[in-house]
Amino acid sequence: IMSVQNLEGVTMGRSCVSVTIAASEVALQRHQPGMYVYVSVPEISCVSHPVTINTVPNQPKQLRIIFRQVGPWTRALGNQILTSPMFARGFNGCPNRVAQVLQHDVSVIVAAGIGITPYLSLL
């Protein structure tokens, strides 16, 4: 983990958290816009949770997850992100989303709130 940023007040009074991680060359080659990873934090839960992963503008060797602290797991993750080991398993999702979008002269993307995260890298 390279940095954790609290994005308070971004969406309807619920804070969002941005976690920037250093990415290996293999991870950068496998990542495509709109993909997600399963995040596991054993100290919080034995269940892995899907989280969208994005590139970081102007930072070619970094990836970022952004999540909104809504339920028990995301609140605990936001509070313990720097003190508990976090594991990510992936990449999952459509590997050719950019190619699909570029087949058209005009594309319309509809998303709101934290639902915009799958499209950040695409945009």
Tell me what the structure shows.
With 123 residues, this protein is α+β, with helices and mostly antiparallel strands. Helices cover 17% and strands 38% of the residues. The protein contains 3 helices and 6 strands; from the N terminus they run ββαβββαβα. The chain has helices at 25-30, 72-80, 97-102, and strands at residues 3-11, 14-22, 36-40, 49-56, 59-68, 87-92. The chain has a 6-stranded antiparallel beta sheet. The longest helix is centred in the middle third of the chain and has 9 residues, at 72-80. The chain is globular. The two termini are 24 Å apart.
List keywords for this structure.
123 residues, alpha+beta, six-stranded antiparallel β-sheet, 6 strands, 17% helix, 38% strand, globular
Secondary structure: elements and pairs:
Elements: E1 3-11, E2 14-22, H1 25-30, E3 36-40, E4 49-56, E5 59-68, H2 72-80, E6 87-92, H3 97-102
Antiparallel strand pairs: 1-2, 2-5, 3-4, 3-6, 4-5
Number of β-strand runs: 6
List the strand order in the largest sheet. 1-2-5-4-3-6
Q: Report mean pLDDT, rounded to a whole number.
A: 88
Q: Between the first and last Cα atoms, what is the distance in angstroms?
A: 24 Å
H/E element string?
EEHEEEHEH
The number of distinct helices, counting runs of at least 4 residues, comes to 3
Helix content: 10-25%
Radius of gyration (CA) equals: 15 Å
What is the strand content? Answer: 35-45%
| Poorly predicted parts | none
Shape label: globular
Let me know the largest β-sheet: 6 strands, antiparallel
